Amino acid sequence: MKVLIAEDEVVLRESIEAYLTKEGNVCEVAADFREASYKTSLYAYDVVVLDVNLLTGSGLDVLKEIKCTKSDTTGIIIISANNSLEDKLEGLDLGADDYLTKPFHLAELNSRINAIYRRKKLSGGNLVICNEIIIDTSSQVVTVEKQEIKLTKKEYDLLLFFISNKNRVLSKGIIAEHLWGDHSDLIDNFDFIYVHINNLRKKLTKVGAKYIKTAYGSGYKFVVE
């Protein structure tokens, strides 16, 4: 899962990032309104953790921008030190999926993020089914025709990303940005993308699942009839 944490309190932001990263997510951060607005306009996220009171602007304005420009599959959870019912209702009315008042336990935030992701991306369940491929997101086990295939963490994330975007051409840049987040900017070339995709394709092909196609000059496509 790719998560943006828009929070101006440094300690809280770093704590959330460390916890969610430990849980296996790719995390990016924004320290103020401008950075949050810039990143949400440029990149796609599975879930955005959004503080209402950001430096240089309101998180609710970022929420409005997301709802105007992004698909409804982007989950948004509002966090705020203000326990005002008015702020909560405004955030939910604008399209936020959930609301947490500070202070909160990181485990609770993680559970709510996972619930949003299941509802938005997995139709409310833990299983992702694509023909003969079944992904159990709770255990991260992948089976093809009831035969388990062993994937690395990046291969697993890549397969889930492909299936979530089946029949769409994904550029190497988009794939790198989804799998590595902010760190993708430090990479000189995309040879590593080819390695991960090639390894995943070999493992799927070995059990008869021939879905990953190369879109020459454009990227890759997970073709599902």
Q: What does this entry look like structurally?
A:
The protein folds into 2 domains: about 1-120, Rossmann fold; about 125-220, Winged helix-like DNA-binding domain superfamily/Winged helix DNA-binding domain (Arc Repressor Mutant, subunit A, Orthogonal Bundle), CATH 1.10.10. It is built from 8 helices and 14 strands. The mean pLDDT is about 90. The protein has helices at about 10-20, 35-40, 60-70, 85-95, 105-120, 155-165, 170-180, 190-205; strands at about 1-5, 25-30, 45-50, 55, 55-60, 75-80, 100, 125-130, 135, 140-145, 145-150, 170, 210-215, 220. Helix content is about 45%, strand content about 25%. By secondary structure, it is an alpha/beta fold. The strands form 4 sheets. The protein has a 5-stranded parallel sheet with strand order 2-1-3-6-7, with helices on both faces. Strands 8-9-10-11 form a 4-stranded antiparallel sheet, with helices on one face.
Please write out the topology.
Layout: E1 2-6, H1 10-22, E2 26-30, H2 33-42, E3 47-51, E4 53-54, E5 57-58, H3 59-69, E6 75-80, H4 85-93, E7 98-101, H5 106-121, E8 127-130, E9 133-136, E10 141-144, E11 147-149, H6 153-164, E12 169-170, H7 172-180, H8 191-206, E13 212-215, E14 219-222
Parallel strand pairs: 1-2, 1-3, 3-6, 6-7
Antiparallel strand pairs: 4-5, 8-9, 9-10, 10-11, 12-14, 13-14
Helix pairs in contact: 2-3, 6-8
